[in-house]
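One-letter codes give the sequence; each number marks local geometry. A record appears below:


***
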Amino acid sequence: MEEDGALLGAIARGSKAAFQSFYERHAGRLLGYVLRVTRDRSLAEDVVQEVFTAIWQKASSYQAEQGTPLAWMYRIARNKLVDRWRRGPPGVAWASEAERPVLALVQADPELSMSLERALEGLSPEQRQAVELAVLGGYTHEEAATELSVPLGTLKSRIRMALRHMRALLTE
């Protein structure tokens, strides 16, 4: 995780080697996530390319206090998926309604989208990172715990508290 932060710093300074390293570390998993959502390999590859283009262009805007580098990357991916979903051709083979990314469904409703963003912003950085990786990012709990360098029980506790907090905010 610290290495990813250092890589993003180097990418922000224009290091192609750092970008290559970051890409090699994460492109496969990101492609798997996007492919599960879209069920279209060509579309998934396009979205992954857009995500890494955005990382190259916006690496200097990454702020560690806002979340891990991977949470930031998945946030970019979700935004790209939502953009594609909103403007995409009707024939795009998206996964079933239940399997679409949570934010893609929520962001179709601007009011609900704003409420969800406010709820995410109301979480502690640790809770937000846990939710972004394990709930929104497609990581298993074990993978997210490893990525965040916390015990599995701690991760589950953070997610549980975060979802409880978000539920309370969203039902007000």
Summary: The two ends are 35 Å apart (CA to CA).
